[in-house]
Amino acid sequence: MGILGPALAESDTAAEAHCLQAQCLLALGKPREGAAAAKQALAVEPAREWAHRLLAIAELRTGRRRAALAAAHEGARLEPSSAHTLHTLVVCQLALRQRAAAEASARAGLEANPQSAMAELTAGIVAEARRDWDAAERHYREGLRLEPQHADLALRLGKLLHRRGRRDEAADAYLAAARSNPTDARARHGLSRLGLPVVGGGVALVIKLVILNGALRVIGGSPTPLRVALVLGIILTVAGAIDWTFRVRGTRGLPDHIRAGLRSDHRNSALRCVRLAALAAVPLGVWSALISSSAGGGAARAAAFFAVAITGLTAARYFWVGPRLGPEAIRRGAGQLFARLRRA
User: With 338 labelled, which of 65, 124, 253, 332 sits at a CA distance of 20 to 30 A?
Assistant: First the structure.
């Protein structure tokens, strides 16, 4: 982004340069810095719609949904017929569960832009929010008819078809997205998950808790760190094996070169189970350190759990393929998880 230096220094180009800087920062996964750059653009030119739209996206990614909605409303006031502006407004409205307002904004986008793929994408997202899968599919397919190289539309269609159990069609959509934007990892991740059954996160969590409780009852006696570790180890081993099997079997119908490219994703899915086991060993180590050896704890067992945690995390990091999660990505992922739990 250093190339923007001269443009940032000139009053005539500063606002646009700050917007470009904000867009780059958002693409790099730095929403806080992106929000600051968008605010700098607005300080130079308060009526620039692009800056308001970028600020809305940045605020939404940092979890400040009401601030994001306010910025999106201001952008829509400045350019009420822009498909991109109304798309951002709809995303912010849905984040605050304002579905009626989002539907109205999506309709306005379609009326003002009847030949816009972005307007169709926006309408499809709203249809998904109200669980009208047929309408969402129609909007995504119409958008792709208008703009066949639109990667986001292809990705949305792929996810929708996968959710509906139409895996062959979903694979075609994901492949189309990959051809449109080969650098977008979302298409590869979607392909690697084709074999996985679509189960809600809340349902999966309940199932795991029931299995854990049942396993502890089978073992008998009061829970101890070693017993809990044994049960968690069994659950994660079985989960990892099932996940691996589903991923490999679900993608065997793809071309050989595509399957070869997905091996890293399959490996990473197994390493996630290793990482979870390592993270689980940390509280078990603390638990062992706080109780006596007669109760199943002790310094030796605590040290063993901590050694398992360090070894597992190190191994997962060493064998991981591709970019590793940074602090911002972890924070954003945790925020998304909590948001899903609140909706559930």
Answer: 124
DSSP letter (8 states) at residue 322: S
Q: How far apart are CA 155 and CA 161, in angstroms?
A: 10
Tokens, residue 37 = 């750059």
Is 177:151 a contact under the CB 8 Å cutoff?
yes
- C-alpha to C-alpha distance for 83 and 100, rounded to whole angstroms: 18
Whether residue 153 contacts residue 120, with contact meaning beta carbons closer than 8 Å, is answered with yes
Burial of 320 (C-beta count, 10 Å sphere; 0-12/13-18/19+): middle
Helical pair 299-319 and 225-250, crossing angle rounded to 10 deg: 20
Closest C-alpha among 203, 171, 195 to residue 248:
195
The domain made up of 2-192 is a member of CATH 3.40.640.10 = no
The token duo for 189 is: 């991740």
- Count of other CB atoms within 10 angstroms of residue 314: 11
Where b means 16+ CB within 10 Å and e means fewer, 21-34 reads bbbebbeeebbebb
Cβ atoms 270, 320 nearer than 8 A: no
What tokens appear for 27 in the block? 């693409």
pLDDT in tens, 119-162: 999 999 999 999 999 999 999 999 999 999 999 999 999 999 99
22 φ/ψ angles, rounded to the nearest 5 degrees: -65, -40
**pTM for this predicted structure:** 0.77
> How far apart are alpha carbons 319 and 58 in whole angstroms?
32
> What distance in Å separates the CA atoms of residue 312 and residue 318, rounded to the nearest whole number?
10
Encode 47-75: b = buried (16+ Cβ within 10 Å), e = exposed: ebbbbbbbbbbbbbbbbbbebbbbbbbbb
Residues with pLDDT less than 70, the chain: 1-2, 4, 198-222, 323-344
pLDDT digits (tens, 9 = 90+) for 29-59: 899 999 999 999 999 999 999 999 999 999 9
Residue 334 contacts by C-beta under 8 Å, 6 or more apart in sequence?
A: none
Task: State the CB neighbour count (10 A cutoff) for residue 309.
Answer: 20
